[in-house]
Amino acid sequence: MVLVLATDPLVSLLFPGEWGNSHVPPDAPLITSTALFVVVSILCAWLCARFAPGSASRHLLWFFIIGEVMGIGSIVPNWNKGWPHWYWLSWLLTWPVSCWIGLLAAGHPDPPAASKQVSSEGAQ
Questions:
Q1: Percent of the chain with pLDDT strictly greater than 70
Q2: Which uninterrupted H or E stretch holds 107?
Q3: DSSP letters of 13-39?
Q4: Which of 7, 53, 74, 103 has the fewest CB atoms below 10 angstroms from its CB?
Q5: Do 87 and 30 meet the contact criterion of CB atoms below 8 Å apart?
Q6: Using CA atoms, how far apart are residues 93 and 68, in angstroms rounded to an integer?
Q7: Phi, psi dihedral angles at 61 (to 5 degrees)
Q8: How far is CA 101 from the centre of its chain?
Q9: Which helix (H) or strand (E) holds 4?
């Protein structure tokens, strides 16, 4: 969440005067913000999967669920505040895809149970 919020100054630099709390920005800064959200989400999902102490898939599933609940929780109070609905929905819809890409980028560190069984049988 901190990394996502840290992208706001970058969007402000790229679109001076168009990104701020006082008004709804035009589409270009919103698209840029969404693209940065996707990049940060993939990075965070990769970190979650890569450094998970147990099953990377299980950790990432909880990462996804918590993120989706937080997303819904932030959309509900902001839905009628004048921002385009595509912006909120794009974050909700790109989140699962970003999590999946992050898991794939981590190299799927969870070996399937069947391969563990085969390798232990082959060692006999």
A1: 85
A2: none
A3: HHSTTTSSTTS---HHHHHHHHHHHHH
A4: 53
A5: yes
A6: 9
A7: -60, -45
A8: 9
A9: helix 2-14
Q: Which of the two residues, 109 and 44, has the higher pLDDT score?
A: 44
pTM greater than 0.85 = no
3-state SS, residue 84: coil
Structure tokens at 95: 């989140």
List alpha helices for 51-105, DSSP H: 56-78, 85-105
Residue 91, both tokens: 């974050």
Query: Distance between CA 119 and CA 50 in Å, rounded?
Result: 23
Structure tokens at 92: 């909700």
pLDDT band of 114, cuts 50, 70, 90: very low
Q: Residue 70 to residues 17, 25, 105: CA-CA distances in angstroms?
A: 28, 22, 24
- Collapse the DSSP code of 112 into the 3-class scheme (helix H, G, I; strand E, B; otherwise coil) and give the result: coil
Residue with tokens 């898991």: 103
Q: Which two tokens stand for residue 102?
A: 């992050």
